[in-house]
Amino acid sequence: MKPDSPERARIRKDPAVREIIRAWRSLTGGADTPDSERRTLVACSGGADSSALAIALAAAAPRSVVIAHVVHDMRPLEQAHADRDAAENLARRLGVRYFDAFVRVRSRPGNAESDARLRRYATLVRIARARRCPHVATGHQADDLAETVIMRLLAGAGPLAMSGIREKLALDHHRSIIRPMLGVTRADSERICGLFNWTWAVDATNADTSRLRSAVRHRVIPILKEISPRVLTRIRCSSSLLADAGRHVRSSITELLFQGESQSIAEHIARDQLRGKTRLYVGEVLRGWYQLLTRGRRLRRISFRALAPVIAAVQDNDRRPREFTVGFATFLIHKDTVTLTPATNAPEFRTSSPPE
């Protein structure tokens, strides 16, 4: 895409493109930062959303955009290589730099989809570090946010999880992941691709309604849009408020979780500090405690539903010792204290100072 081409001018006039560019600039330093200092690695699968993101950012500042694609072995290699080729062709048409990498997932034990996602992000961080990109942008948009909120609602999630997809998240000390498309829809993505005369890749697994996200996407969201045409905007507003509520609760429990001059993670918490508090507060204390002690070990998170009997035991007046194993942790409820220890199937826990 040539800098002074009519095509670029036409794309920049699109309202969704303007919103993506506005959000990108807001998330990468604000109005005082020149576009030349917003070097951004766009994670491009070749699908409509990530393609639209690349097109929009290249229309704004092509020299600040790098496209990256990560190939993994979760799908037949023929399909995976076709998506890789689509991403590379898009980069070539846009006139921006392109890099790709391969990660192996199938041979590893555990949740393959979760592992693929974690390894994909780790690979993107390595590429971003090598190419001196402080920002990694993904194509998550408003439909994705709504689907995530509904899925977590079905799982009985708390307010932080119900906040859905965060606009910005630190990946390491120097890089962050940004989502400039949460204010636009999947339909906007497809229109942007059409403006560039770009045919995006289609992942056939997205049509498999035996998968929860696909079922929500194809069966639930269309009905909600029919009932309330502005449902995506309203879900985003609610998720933002829930994120604020969750962060407020988390900030208020810091003194419980970090104790002493060394600010090491608490080994015990007095039950009196939790009695009389709301289930939300106690649940966030227990969840935060668990996540701190297992930080960096890629252990699965625990839900409020799984913690319900622990929360009830913490708050009741029963003075007998009890224990509850949830995930990779065992909560020991004593007369006056609560203790968290690793379960028999867990790796060794560690203590550390609070994150900066």
How would you describe what is shown here?
With 356 residues, the protein is an alpha/beta fold. The protein folds into 2 domains: 6-238, HUPs (Rossmann fold, 3-Layer(aba) Sandwich), CATH 3.40.50.620; 253-342, Uridine Diphospho-n-acetylenolpyruvylglucosamine Reductase, domain 3 (2-Layer Sandwich), CATH 3.30.465. Helices cover 47% and strands 14% of the residues. The protein contains 13 helices and 12 strands. It has helices at 6-13, 15-27, 48-60, 77-94, 112-130, 142-154, 159-162, 186-195, 212-227, 231-252, 254-257, 279-293, 304-315; strands spanning 40-43, 65-72, 97-103, 135-137, 168-170, 176-178, 258-259, 264-265, 268-270, 322-326, 329-333, 337-342. The strands form 3 sheets. Strands 3-2-1-4-6-5 form a 6-stranded mixed sheet, with helices on both faces. It has a 4-stranded antiparallel sheet with strand order 9-12-11-10, with helices on one face. Strand 10 (322-326) and strand 11 (329-333) form a beta hairpin. Helix 2 crosses helix 3, helix 3 (48-60) crosses helix 8 (186-195) and helix 12 packs across helix 13 (304-315). The two termini are 41 Å apart. The model is unreliable at 349-356 (pLDDT under 50).
